Structure formats: C-alpha cells, structure tokens
Request: fold
Amino acid sequence: MNALTLQWHDAGQDKTQSIYEQQPSQNRGTVRIGRDPLRCDIVLSHPTVSGLHVEIFFHYQQQRFYIRNLRSQNPPLIDGRQLVQGEVPLTEGANISLGQIQLKVTKISTGSIPVTILLPPHPSVHIGYHHHSLTPSAPPLGVYGLECPRCHKVSPGENLQIGCRWCGTSLAAAVSVLVTPSS
Reply:
C-alpha cells in the first residue's frame, strides 16, 4: 500500500502520522491539513497555520504523493520554496512549512503496481487507459466516469457539461474510465 509519513512538533508535542492512498478523510481522495477541525484531517494548533491550508493526495498515474496549496494568502513552503498555487510532488525528506509549523516527510512507500485495462468504446467520450484501482472520489462501481485532465479525480459522466466538481476544469478532453472493483 502507498503511504507517506509526516513528523512535526505542535503544542509542545512531537507528532507522527501516516497518510495512505485511500484512507477515509473529510474530503474524499485527499488529506487536508490546517487549523480547522471541521475541515481538516490533520489539525495543527499554531495561529500562523490557516484554517484550511494544504491537502496531500496520491496521484495514481504518477505513483507519487503530491501537496496542493489551498490558501493563496498564506502559501506553504516546500523545501524553502513558496507553493503559491497548484501542486508539487513530495519526496522523502521534504520539509513543509505551514506558517511557523514545520512538517517533515520522513518516509514514502509506494508498493502498489498499477494494472491497466483497455476500455470499450464509449460514444461521447475519448477512450483511454486507467488504473484498475478505486479512488475514494470515484463514482459507484461498474460505471463510466470522466478523469479530470488536471486533478485526475473521477467525476460521473453527467458532469461533462458542468466540468470537474473539484477544480472546475473542462471535461471535454477527459479520459473515459470504467470504475470496477479491485481484485
């Protein structure tokens, strides 16, 4: 199973937490970090940390964990570099600064080997390949979905005209994926 381990010091305590590719969270498919316990899975108490600061997620095509900034007014530093918008891959040993709290990526293990399947033609959507693994954000099993070309989350086919419900990107060029149970 793919996992990333974080260590940090907050409120006088040393803390360690692992993040897994498919762990349950308040925002499906991601683990959110910030000060607000109603919106975050990892809650930091320091007042320099935003209520909703960043999220970490596993990118199936890249087989890597990424961090995404959710607070443009208070951007995180990744190894000393500001992440104003978008996302960057995380590496073992990376330092993440959220306000005055320092988190360190102490371990990353990516042991899953993705299996690809060829999808049958679908009349209204481009054909493509997709990993045979379920993301927590996927539509129900055994149905077609549209993989966002930007954030790679899977939306129901009826979102074609609306766009990705997570990042707003058009799904006109999205890959059609069949969400099936993992074996």
Observations:
- The first strand starts at residue 3 and ends at 10.
- Confidence is low (pLDDT under 50) at residues 112-140.
